[in-house]
Amino acid sequence: MDSQTAGYYESNAAEIARRYEAVESPIERYFAAYFLPGARVLDIGCGSGRDLSRLVANGYEGYGIEPADSLRAAALVAHPELAGRIERGGLPATGKPFGGEFDGVVCSAVLMHVPTTDLLDAVLAIRSLLKEHGRLLLSLPASRGEELKEHRDSAGRLFSPYSAGEISLLFERFGFRPMCRWESGDQLGRQGTSWYTLLFELQGTGAQRPIDQIEIILNRDRKEATYKLALIRAMAEIATQEARSAVWLGGDCVGIPLVRIAERWLLYYWPIMASSALTPQSRAEAAGARPLKFRSSLTALIREFQGKGHHGGLSAWHLTRMGGKLSPEVSVLLKRALRDIAEAIRSGPVAFSGGALASGPVFTYDPRTKLVEMPVDLWREFSLLGHWIRDAVIVRWAELSGQFGVRQGVTAADVLPFLLAQPEVDRITSLARASFEAAGVGECTWSGKRLNAGFAVDHVIPFSLWANNDLWNLVPADPRINLQKSDKLPTHRLLMERQTQLAEGWSILRESLPVPFDRQAEHLLGHPLRATGPWQDLLFARLREAIETTAMQRGVERWSP
Question: What is the pTM of this model?
Answer without folding.
Answer: 0.74
